[in-house]
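Something for you to look into today, if you have time. What I am after is a single protein written out in full by you. I want to see for myself how the chain folds. Could you add the entry underneath, on a fresh line?
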Amino acid sequence: MTRANGAGGASGGGGVPEAEEQEPEGGPRRGPAGAAPDGGWGWVVLAATIVVLALTLAFPSCVGIFYTDLQNEFNASNSETSWVPSIMTSVLHAGGPICSVLVERLGCRATVMLGGVLSGLGMAASSFTQSIEQLYITAGVITGLGFCFSFQPAVTILGHYFVRRRAFANALSSTGTALGLCTLPILGNYLHGELGWRGSFLVLGAVLLNCCVCGAVMRPLGAPGARRSRPPPPPEEDEEEEEGGGRKRRAWGRAAAAALSKHMAFDQLLHNPRYCAYAAGITWMMLGFVVPLIYLVPYATAHGMEQGRAALLLSILGLVNIVVRPPFGVVFGMPWFKGRHIYVFSWALLVNGLSNGICCVGPSFPVLLVYVVVYGLSMSVVGSLMFTVLMDVVEMSRFPSALGLLAIMESVTLLIGPPLAGVLIDWTGQYFYVFFASSAVVASSAVFLMVAFYWLDARDRKSSGQSPPSTPPASARPSVDLAPRCGYSSVPTEGDRDKASSNGAQNVSGV
């Protein structure tokens, strides 16, 4: 499937404006038409993305360090306390459409910085809360929305800076989550011992403001002075007077439908079976994927393990990810893996799900150490390929809206997963049932993805052998500006052209 980057500053006809060969002195290097450099300033953007992912995606899992304190402070049950990281993670994903609109209006750089301000203020306000319900708003909604505004534009802009090295860049950026899992538990445990949970939340709020610094270096890669797309103008007054407001309502309805289609990839969900299968599998996976990370520390401390050793398990998990994700990124960027990313992803997801059963052997440190190593290895592959697979199944110009819709779907299961696990603990009084349930959910999603994509590949091979292509390759079609403020133009990769020529009959949803 061909992928095309969103065309920066496309005018009404959807064409890509001509760009100068070089920007003014001090600007990032680029090729004709604002082509992605696959290097240069992109490495700075990659480093900033790593830090953003460390401060956003890894943060909800580290709330488990303060789990017992929150229960005691607010006299809350397991299910009530688990809503805090659950809402935080859910809003992080559910804010995708809002984030997409902000990226269009403000650009990736300003949106990331806005997210840093929101998340910092949310955690600082959490240190002054007097009830668990107030914590749902401050730590859950406000901080989670800030994480969303920082995380999604960072991933989007990275996909435009790197084309030929995109698999490697995604794998390397995913080490940010591992870096957060490695450092935030140690920092959180130290702050917990020195300042308590309230002081820790206040300091962590200041730490999250570093997302603003990271956003400041994410310079757009478009043609200087390129025109930006604007929303459709409102109906004129004479039309309202002429037809009593009927035409105005129809015009606003069409504008709303266009905006919904632009920021939520419903066309991909309806007409791209690969995206549909991937979205369904990932949505089901998220019901149990993050639950073990939230309950690992409470599970260990409930069986007598010291808080410091329990937090060390999360740090070891992050360290494993840091060590293995970069070489995995190099390996998965090799030509042999083109078209096979989804199968590697599915097998790693299957191992990840089954590894949760190791926790049920016992709560001792050696057993849990083996668990975090196996879980970390499989998690590294899953994290390295999650965005790469999504970029494989949709055109790059549709990636922001496809990610936004997928995030909305994920947010539902991310919201209910930890509270359901908390209810299970309250009913049974045992933590290991949670790991059993998570194992079944994640493993079943892996099997579904394997079977679904194998069937789709077999169908496409059969179709390409029986009928000629009915539509021209997507690389021959003009690109459409769907993320104008990111300022990028269409750069088909060599692999894209190979796939277009070898599998022209493949159904690619156009814009």
About this structure: The first helix runs from residue 41 to 56.
